[in-house]
Amino acid sequence: MATNIREIQLKYSNQQKCLNLLEKLRWGKTVTCPNCDKNKIRVVDPLKKRYICKSCNEQFSVFTDTIFEGTLLELPIWFQIIALVLNAKSGMAANEIKRHMGITYKTAYYVAMRIRIGMLEDCTCLNGIIEMDESYFGGKHRQFHRGIKDEHPTISGVELKRGRGTNKVSVAGMVQRKGKVKTKIIEKLTKRNLLAMLKTYAKKENSILVTDGFRSYKELEKYIDRLEINHSKAFSKGIVHVNTIEGFWSYVKNGIRGSYKVISKKYLPLYLLEYEWKFNHRFYRCNEFEKYLKNALKHDKALHNWKAESTQQVKKLVYNQ
Ligand SMILES: [Zn+2]
Questions:
Q1: For all residues of the chain together, what is the average pLDDT?
Q2: Residue 32: pLDDT band by 50, 70, 90 thresholds?
Q3: From ligand 1's centre to the CA of 56, what distance in Å?
Q4: Are residues 112 and 189 in the same domain?
Q5: Does any domain span residue 257?
Q6: What is the rounded CA–CA span in Å between residue 94 and residue 68?
Q7: Cα 293 to averaged position of ligand 1 atoms, centre (Å)
Q8: Residue 138: CATH number of its domain
Q9: Are residues 135 and 273 in the same domain?
């Protein structure tokens, strides 16, 4: 079900209504201390819904340790921006949010980044037919205008040979046919790194991996059943293809190009999270808005440190590695 911004506006028209929903989604009926998980609490501020824990004496609210922590923006505006962002299938730049909502660019950017962090889902366990492939991100903005085609992995031409060995950011991706996608920035596409990713995100039993003939993938055979597509001969032979993951890469790249123009390497993981979420919910028929909020409210101290200073830290935040 689409998340209709007008419905959100009507249903969550004031701070109280929004807070009630957040509390319901995070705690159900029992308010629980994020610090010690006990539920003997006392209300400190009934309007702002602030509590103090009788066990550990910590003050908290439904915002504590979530993307909403420390925000000064009213929740109805947050909710509307979330609805806007969820509906923008190819992405929405902070400037666009600014224009829609009449807020400053700084606020729009802050909220947009936090919304992306809230899209981090628990380990998706892929199984069945799993396609694995990598793609390269980067290149300067002007390259788009010059028509240089290496923004998409291409099989023609030796130089552009699927981008391997370039100095761009390499991202490995796995997708379950008719299922979810999971990506990860991997500096070196070695067997060891790819295997680690495979082990984290896929179930080996009853699964089959489809890749191209890149050496590092060949070596995964010792771990999981694998089919190989030979790109120089054909794009697909029956079920042996990597069209789904390649479709995902073009979805992401077209989205970034169209909506964000240029993004920094540092925050690429967060943009990937956004496109993963959108891809993974493309057939979702229930209330995506509430599902998103529930996911974003998950008690996760890592979210607290969202202002990561380096690529490494962003990666740590996103991938817990
Ligand atoms: Zn406590």
A1: 85
A2: very high
A3: 4
A4: no
A5: yes
A6: 17
A7: 23
A8: 3.30.420.10
A9: yes
Bridge-based pairing state of the strands 208-212 and 225-229: parallel
d(CA 93, CA 256): 9
Give residue 61 CA to ligand 1 midpoint distance, Å.
12
| 230 and 114 co-located in one domain | no
Q: Which domain holds residue 49?
A: 5-121+287-302
CA 78 / ligand 1 centre spacing (Å): 27
Cα 305 to ligand 1 centre (Å): 21
Question: Residue 2: what pLDDT?
Answer: 57
| Cα–ligand 1 centroid distance for 132 (angstroms) | 43
Cα(177) to centroid of ligand 1, in Å?
43
Identify the H or E element spanning 112.
helix 105-117
The whole-angstrom separation of Cα 65 and Cα 215 is 42
Q: What is the 184 CA–ligand 1 centroid distance (Å)?
A: 35
What are the counts of helices (DSSP H) followed by strands (DSSP E) for the chain?
A: 13, 8
148, amino acid identity: I
CA of 51 to the centre of ligand 1 (A): 10
d(Cα 321, Cα 313) in Å, to the nearest integer? 9
Residue 270 token pair:
């967060």
How far does the centroid of ligand 1 lie from the alpha carbon of residue 157, in Å? 61
User: Ligand 1 centroid to 301 CA: how many Å?
Assistant: 15
pLDDT in tens, 212-222: 988 899 999 99
Alpha carbon distance 64, 298 (integer Å): 10
Encoded amino acid at 297, one letter: L
Q: Phi, psi at residue 52, to the nearest 5°?
A: -125, 140
- Is 309 a member of any domain? no
Tell me, in angstroms, the distance from the centre of ligand 1 to residue 54's CA: 7
Count of the separate structural domains present in the chain: 2
Specify the pLDDT at position 232. 67
At residue 65 the predicted structure's pLDDT band, cuts being 50, 70 and 90, is confident
* Cα 66 from Cα 167, distance rounded (Å): 35
